[in-house]
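re: ur question from earlier - yeah i can do the single chain one, its not a big deal. heres the input i used so u can compare w yours
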Amino acid sequence: MSEPKEQEAETTWSRSRSQFKGKQNSEYFDPCQEAADKSLRCLRRNGGDRTLCQDCFDAYRACKKSWMAEMTKERKAKTGGPF
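and the output i got, formated as tokens:
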């Protein structure tokens, strides 16, 4: 069940990569914003009951984890180190 979420996160990053690279350094861009918005909408819809929104939270975490791993991988490939 976690595989589709990981694939969705990779797809999200793949779609957002050009937007992220084209932004100004001072701009903030989150390719997982759609998943974050879904989580917040779920909380509002369910009166703040976090247990009903766990799937949304898991999808957001998977997206962020995938995004950060990809950014670290690209950074290491570009500079030869973690920074």
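The helical segments are 2-22, 33-45, 54-79. not sure if urs matches, ping me
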